[in-house]
Specification:
The structure is a homodimer. By secondary structure, chain A is an all-alpha fold. Helices cover about 75% and strands about 0% of the residues of chain A. The interface between A and B is large, with 50 and 50 residues. Chain A binds a DNA duplex through helix 1 and helix 3.
DNA sequence: TGTACATCAGTGAACGCGCGTTCACTGATGTAC
DNA sequence: TGTACATCAGTGAACGCGCGTTCACTGATGTAC
């Protein structure tokens, strides 16, 4: 594992993104002003514009970073799961357990999904940010769809199973679970939703 | 069924709420200005403030109306389903089918859930709006929990079933499905998620 | 039926503050010769 | 090793526009006597 040392400027940029992300998940993008970001980051307005061309550029960088981190996280979990079982179904079920456990271990609950946040304010963003957001969901879909196809080969499901919808359901349950957890201020709700999804997958592929 | 005739002022108020809701679901609450709302409604700023004390009051009225309409809609669907079957499981499955069909019939897809939108900008709102938002989710939970309890009495599920999570899963799948549909611009994704939830409920209560 | 008054559903002008963005500039660090 | 220049990571001041809110006022409709 390589740990790149950040230069001074990169560290500031990352700090700006951290602060902006917290704020945006709490108040929305339009509700978050550059003034409050720079105040918390301890820099000036112009310092901000050294790192980002404009506010939309901040939005894009934030989303890109979120997607990249998710990619790293999920590849890691899938890899762990694959090491624990060769069977595609068992491996997938292990993955979902690891995912649920990880969400349980966040003391303040999941801070929120940037993709979901952006979807509810997409008219604020340029076309490329919207496209990037959609791409994030497509990546999830393909990742899960791929796993489910391999499971279906070995454990033939009933004919009417909508595998595409089952793949998308992972995103849906995660995003829905985050909303539940945030709204009701109960961090346990998200991991429990993931475990429901897991139970469904288990049932749907178990021989009748 | 009683149809109240709206007075002139009430009609304007409803129109403001309609316009505001579309805008808020597209751009977020902070991203929606009173200026654009009044321009589209064809009134002046002061006209707006005759109907709402301030912007937060608009947020509250919008949420309250959304919750009330949802209540009417779901009571109706449950009633329809109950008329088609006395069995709690069958009735619930019919309800879910009706719900999915209704979502399918929206030509441009579901416009978005105010509750989910507010969750991702809750620091913008006063305490009472946040409480109302949480209450909306609690109402769903209780409604579904109640149905599921009655089903579980007649169709004993396995011991480890998390009925609370299964009840919440209806909201999660609906909110997650809306996000999928909106982000990927595919109205079919939401009803298909609801049908996945239906398939899970069916499986989980069918004797092993 | 006429008149006085109250309420409804707004108008019009002004308010000050906060917003995102621009511009010319700068001190510290890195690189070439 | 010294010097010239370039790049990095910002500063400080100003910009105009759009924002939510306030205030005094008004014409049309409804109600009481």
């Amino acid at each position: 594992m390589t740990v790149r040392v950040l230069s001074k400027g990169e560290a500031t940029r990352e700090r700006i993104l951290d602060i902006a992300q917290d704020a945006v998940l709490a108040k929305g993008f339009a509700g978050t002003s550059l003034d409050e970001i720079i105040a918390e980051a301890g820099i000036t307005k112009s310092g901000f514009f050294y790192h980002f061309r404009d506010k939309n550029d901040l939005a894009k960088a934030m989303l890109q970073r979120y997607l990249d981190r998710e990619e790293v996280l999920f590849s890691g979990l899938f890899k762990q799961a694959d090491e624990l079982s060769e069977d595609p179904l068992h491996s997938f079920l292990i993955f979902l357990k690891l995912f649920a456990d990880l969400m349980s271990d966040m003391p303040n609950g999941h801070p929120g999904c940037i993709v979901a946040s952006y979807v509810y304010q997409d008219h604020l963003f340029s076309q490329d940010v919207r496209a990037l957001n959609a791409e994030g969901l497509i990546v999830w879909r393909n990742r899960f769809r791929d796993r489910l196809d391999r499971i279906a080969e070995r454990y033939p499901p009933r004919a009417d199973l909508d595998i595409d919808a089952l793949a998308d359901m992972a995103s849906a349950v995660a995003d829905g679970g985050i909303i539940l957890s945030k709204c009701l201020r109960d961090p346990s709700l998200l991991p429990r939703q993931i475990l429901q999804y897991r139970a469904y997958v288990k049932l749907v592929f178990s021989p009748a």
